[in-house]
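Quick sanity check, Barstar family protein:
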Amino acid sequence: MSVGTQIVLSQIKSLDEAYQQIATQANLPADFGRNLDALYDVLTTDLAGPVQIMWRGFMQSEKIMPGTQFHDLMTVLNDAAGERDDLEVGLC
């Protein structure tokens, strides 16, 4: 798959870190909402495709992200990938 937007998540310890890395790498505007609903909207409608998200160290993130943050973020990533045929999420 040739990539229009590539995002590499690394050493994610919180949703705030995930939002920051995504916003920086995807050149999102300063008013990006930094919540799960806004992230879903960005992933499904705002990014040039195809979109590839690679989450490095996701197993470590699962252990250290507070509460349900890891599972909430994974749900949004998977839901967005289900909504958009040209969005691929890779975990390593």
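Posting the structure with no commentary besides this: Strands lie at 5-10, 51-56, 87-91.
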